[in-house]
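Before surveying the methods themselves, let us examine one representative protein, written as a sequence plus integers encoding its fold.
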Amino acid sequence: MDSMPRRRFVMGLGLAGGAVATAGPLRGATAAPATTIPAACAPLTGLSFTAPEQQQMLGAVDEIVDRARALAQMRFDNDLPPAELFDPRLAGWQREKGIALAAPALPLPNLPTGADDIAFSPAWQLAGWIQSGKLKARALTDIYLDRIARNADRLNCITTLMADAARREAEACDHDLARGHLRGPLHGLPYGLKDLIDTAGVETAWGAEPYRGRVPASDATIVTRMRDAGAIPLAKTSLGAIAYGDIWYGGRTRNPWNTAEGSSGSSAGSAAAVAGGLCAFAIGTETMGSIIAPAARCGAVGLRPTFGRVPRTGAMALCWSLDKIGVLARDPLDTALALKVMNGPDGQDASAIPEPLGRVPQITPANIRVGYRPEWFKAGTAADWAALAAARKAGFTLHEIEMPEVDLEKLGGLVVLEAAAAFQELTASGRDDLLTWQDDIAWPNSWRAAQFETAVNYIQAQRLRRRLMLEFAKTMASVDVILHPNNAGGLLAIGNHCGYPALCLPVAMLKQPTRQGFTDYVAPADVPAGAAMHRVPFNVSITGRLFEEARLVAVGQALARTIGLEPLRPLP
């Protein structure tokens, strides 16, 4: 293989070391003779075979090549999952009973007089003002539409604005309430919806050029549930093309605190819209950081729920064993309000798990064990130090934890492999060339390379994932939550691979130069001479136990109250 030109090798092979098809034959390349395949592909397996063993393989290799080519020619709808289903619950897992009494309702403050003050208020307060008759849904919708008109272009965070439909729905909500009919806890709240979640009759293009003009015939399950609960879909929000990054067919989504930098991804538009005061809350999705990352960049509160908590019917599938639908908001309580509406199986998503979601409990911090590692915070930012200090001040019981010893790099291919399967049609047809982002780390290149991963490697990585789940379960058994810098200890990857929930919330404001790409923090020593500095928010994360989002939100709320961060308002 070393002596063979790389392009000829990649395009000419009909097989890559296992039952995985290359796109080559489908894109006009000439396949190499089957007799060359065992020798050429052996390096991809990490194994070596003798010449007689390679000769003996040829019959089986022919069959594998034929099967690989046949599978690569097939077309599957994006919503068809594989037969193997992921479940974050290990054998013997039981839901904890009787965590605590439900927390008393917080007092509702007076309705602000200024429209922008109303726009930046938490969703739970907006809901209270509407239900008490102090605020009309139509008035709130108009406030957000005005802010969208002023700010959406500079943020580049909206793909489709549903202004007329939102106004009609708001007026219907006001009419219903006047007759004494409360639709649900989200009555009259305009929200943003990540543009990979289907809306009947409204374009849902997944942020990607090949899917522009895609108009679904029906709503996703969560859209129906939101409407039944009184929420008003205001806008489809931008996402990095096919749920990666913040670059979509309309350009790059911007951070409201510094529009020279992107808002991270892939729930880029949902985070920017919430942080910029363009909607009451927004829906995002996460496979490997797509709620946490933009929430941290924009200073929003992001809740990634337990895998299986929310049915994904009608949402674009990227990675069936990791995709989750969650919430971007301005207050931890807002996330619980929306999650309660979305929770529960719908009879269509085979991975949805029937676990109840209780009310946010009243907690005594001294009874809550908060796990952490001192070195995470020693090496962290001033925001991380502030979060740890606040946890101590609030009275939480801090507990130093042991983390799993698993090489997470060996799991890195799982997302790419599932995504490559979900979108093999793009690779096979060459339509992946239509995507704007074509860097080495972008989807097109990753998916092409994924064709050369072996099926055995994929299964071994899944076995390693199971080992990680077993070891991390031991870690979580010793604590109620883990407090950590967003990416510390591999917890972003661990939490997603194991299916655990996490809450990301702003804790401090720091000065930073314009950050490039996915860079989170630029240390003072690395700031270029003369660089303009911007005051931007920094977040911290809390990882919770499986299906214990209510307690997770209670801990986040207590931490936020202790920190007492000023109201975050980046835009006029």
Observations:
- Residues 6-78+425-454 form one domain.
- Confidence is low (pLDDT under 50) at residues 1-26.
- The radius of gyration is 24 Å.
- The chain has two domains: 6-78+425-454, 115-406+463-517+530-563.
